[in-house]
Amino acid sequence: MKKILLPLFTLFLLVQSNIATAQTQFDVDGVIVPREIKFQTKTIQLNGFGIRSKMMMEVYVQALYLTILSQEPKEIIESDTEMAIRIQITSSMVSSGKLTKNLYKGLERSTGGNLEQFSSQIETLKALLSDKIVEKDVFNLIYNPKDTSIWLYKNDELKGKIPGFDFKKAFFGIWLSDNPVDDDLKNDLLGKTK
């Protein structure tokens, strides 16, 4: 009987280990997307993820993390709770200049072209993204309601903060506004099936 129980117990442990791994992360074309992000004393949960493509080429895998999961883009944009955008670069064609330019265009769409009030935040964002970007770089842009700023991490290193709740709304609006940069990606981030 012991000879039978030991292999069964070992098999049970292996199955449980694989289930636990499957529940803590997702694989998107070789990019590992974690189910949660730790930020200070908070745990932010994965709401949805997808692939951003430009000109038929995948440029990054993006994920949205929220304190309270939601499929309502306006509620997410207006929420003054911890939330994060995670971007992992998947193309060597992405450079600092191209990423900054695309985020700027996204902010234009999100705000309807009203960017004057965000000129200092845009300059800060540009400076924080000025280092060389290579394939597999990971950016976590985490909104912290305690100081109403977006904390920008590159490969788990804090690069700096961009202040302003209104800027946070415009920034998350790049992907979640009524005029997002990519409708399919918006639905993916909201966890909506096609």
Produce a short descriptive summary.
With 194 residues, this protein is an alpha+beta fold. It is built from six helices and nine strands; from the N terminus they run αβββββαβααβββαα.
Tally of separate helices: 6
N/C terminus separation: 51 Å
Number of domains: 1
Using the 3D structure, state the CATH architecture: 3-Layer(bba) Sandwich
| Helix share, percent | 25-40%
**What sequence of helices (H) and strands (E) makes up the elements?**
HEEEEEHEHHEEEHH
Query: How large, in whole angstroms, is the Cα Rg?
Result: 19 Å
Strand order of the largest sheet: 3-4-5-6-7-8-9
The proportion of strand residues reads 25-35%
- CATH topology-level name: Chalcone isomerase
The chain-level structural class is alpha+beta
Strand count, sense and barrel status of the largest sheet are:
7 strands, antiparallel
What top-tier CATH class fits best? Alpha Beta
Which stretches are low in confidence, meaning pLDDT under 50 for 5 or more residues running? 1-22
- Specify the overall morphology: globular
Number of strands: 9
Mean of all residue-level pLDDT scores: 86
Outline the structure in words:
The chain has a single domain, classed as Chalcone isomerase (3-Layer(bba) Sandwich). The protein is built from six helices and nine strands. It has helices at 2-24, 73-78, 96-111, 119-128, 165-176, 183-189; strands spanning 25-28, 31-34, 36-39, 42-54, 57-66, 83-89, 138-144, 149-154, 157-163. Helix 3 crosses helix 5 (165-176). It is globular, with a radius of gyration of 19 Å. The termini are far apart. The relative contact order is 0.15.
